[in-house]
């Protein structure tokens, strides 16, 4: 009995466990039977300890943090920044371009401006500016029809719409170039330009404006009365619309398959694979590449 007790103690078993096993099996039991019973008791006690721990944690769940707090850090951070308007870029809308686009190039539809403004307001943007030439406040004429003109006055009172200066000199209208107002404000405020115009004349004025217009121009479409910007404003290899409108990107971009040819790829902007070396560079067309090489 004592020899079996000493042997089991050397193996690390507790004395009360050994005594319980020897009392159960008897002093004449084989050492292998004693060890098997000790192992069975040890496994049983471990399983009971795990079940008690799980039951303890299960009772603590209702008193723990709310579901929003125990969500994944990525999703909680995303929700936090989506609701934070400070992370959204300022929006500068080309009012004439949007209104003429909604009017199918046949008339100046002020309702199109309202639809675009409402779309960005629903996204949480607060810094929205619309530029419209001041002569659009004049009465509608057959050669330049204007619909829903009262919307312009309403947006001006809400300090969203700004009229660019214009005046008459000896019966002739003198207007300021509203596109320059749009690009200058968007550049100074590090915002987004909403227009289907490429502003090629202004791109040639300043190199920094050219790069800014290439990277911050948000084009759009109207489907009846629905304002629809693209989900990939800078192409399929660029940022998503959500990250494009933010100062700090939050939603992770989908992983793209890298091009197997790497820098040796000759497809240029037509390559369907991802080129990390071109991530921060605008995808120039073949015509632009030929013009640049001709100048060089």
From TrEMBL:
The keyword Isomerase does not apply. Transmembrane segments: none annotated. CDD domains: PIN_Zc3h12-like. Its cofactor is Mg(2+). Residues 253-278 form the C3H1-type domain. A zinc finger (C3H1-type) spans 253-278. Residues 45-81 are annotated as: Disordered. GO terms for cellular component: cytoplasmic ribonucleoprotein granule; nucleus. Keywords: Endonuclease, Hydrolase, Magnesium, Metal-binding, Nuclease, Zinc, Zinc-finger. Pfam families: RNase_Zc3h12a, UBA_6. Residues 48-59 have a biased composition (Low complexity). One of its GO terms (molecular function) is mRNA binding. Belongs to the ZC3H12 family. This is Putative ribonuclease ZC3H12B.
